[in-house]
Amino acid sequence: MAETAAGASQALDYIKGRIEKARRRFGPPPESVELVAVSKTFPADQVRPFLVAGQLVFGENRVQEAKEKWPGLRAEFPGLSLHLIGPLQTNKVREAVALFDVIETVDRDKLAKALGEEMARTGRRLPCFVQVNIGGEEQKAGIAVSETADFVGRCRSDYGLNVVGLMCIPPDGQPPGPYFAHLVQLARDCAVEKLSMGMSGDFETAIAMGATHVRVGSALFGRRFTPEPA
Ligand SMILES: *Cc1c(COP(=O)(O)O)cnc(C)c1O
Q1: Whose CA is nearest to atom 4 of ligand 1?
Q2: Is residue 111 part of a domain?
Q3: CA of 217 to the centre of ligand 1 (A)
Q4: Which residues are the signal sequence here (predicted)?
Q5: How many domains does the chain have?
């Protein structure tokens, strides 16, 4: 675990090296791959060294945790960008729009409408990703594959959201490649450019398929001991 700036720097260099290698190895390479450092469950003191080491893009999956952790860090590092990568309840939309810079988990009309209204009210028109339930898993968040194109259309025209891309989490225990490839195809159908896919275990595969954003947690910060809420 990287608890010092030097340790964080080393962990970052290692992951960025792997990202860069994957980007060059497979063609046509995405222009650039954004590393979203997933800091959920890690306290501010363990995140700060990564900011000191130059990492400015982070992901959190819970509004409440972000609210406790990030305003202080943001005061120290005004250039940082925070992505919401976990499920969002409609009653937390106001806080989420205030706290985050990118919303990656737009997956239903009620949420999209609430986000659109809050962004219009505050003038914070954040880039959004539509989360797709790429494996068609009953318990998983995300819009159904067959509804994605229509939903992206509604997000844009009815709710005024700035949809920049698609995001997915493939099913556990299966090769992720075909799911990533499917998301790429869907993104083409929806005319969105960005693809948030790939985590610690599979980000190189995701980059090979065309990921523009990879969400890497444990490979950077170490193992998470706190159980994650669903
Ligand atoms: C926790 C989480 C990640 C990071 O997972 P690691 O396997 O630790 O890299 C990425 N995306 C989402 C949506 C997550 O909840």
Answers
A1: 217
A2: yes
A3: 6
A4: none
A5: 1
